[in-house]
Design goal:
The protein is an alpha+beta fold. It has a single domain (8-106), classed as OB fold (Dihydrolipoamide Acetyltransferase, E2P). Helix content is 21%, strand content 35%. It is built from four helices and nine strands; from the N terminus they run E-E-E-H-E-E-E-E-E-H-H-E-H. It has helices spanning 29-35, 81-85, 89-92, 115-125, and strands spanning 8-9, 14-19, 22-27, 38-42, 49-50, 55-61, 65-69, 74-79, 101-105. A six-stranded antiparallel beta sheet has the order 1-2-3-9-8-5. A hairpin with a 3-residue loop joins strand 6 (55-61) and strand 7 (65-69). The longest helix is centred in the last third of the chain and has 11 residues, at 115-125. It is globular. The relative contact order is 0.26.
């Protein structure tokens, strides 16, 4: 399973890339594989305020509906409209074109997992 070393992760199987105070957020390849064929994505609205750990959207697959949790505190500044129209991108390119939304950080997140910690977590679930 691919776990890019340049990203941080959450125990809810989201990845976070932070660049100049903006966090880009998506779901991991592990989560995408567990979900199966993704058929619908409801990301948060642009300008919405999100808090770490709170539900801010959902992903629906042929197997189930899963909540999207914000891994950070801040304001949503961009949403990937391409995945809304083509939700299968989350399964085929979760760390690239399958990103979900971007948040301008209110503060630096302190409880994200390292790639090593996330790998340990997923190996324990596998």
């Amino acid at each position: 399973m691919s776990v890019p070393a340049e990203l941080n992760y959450t125990s809810e199987h989201e990845w976070v890339a932070i660049n100049d105070g903006v966090a880009t957020i998506g779901i991991t390849a592990y989560a995408a594989e567990a979900l199966g064929d993704i058929v619908y994505v409801e990301p948060p609205e642009v300008s919405a305020t999100v808090r770490a750990g709170d539900t801010c959207g959902e992903v629906e697959s042929t197997k189930s509906v899963s909540d999207i949790y914000s891994p950070v505190n801040g304001e949503v500044v961009d949403v990937n409209r391409t995945v809304v129209d083509e939700p299968e991108l989350i399964g085929t390119d979760p760390y690239g074109q399958g990103w979900l939304f971007k948040v301008e950080l209110a503060e630096e997140p302190s409880d994200l997992l390292t790639p090593e910690q996330y790998t340990q977590l997923t190996e324990g679930e596998g």
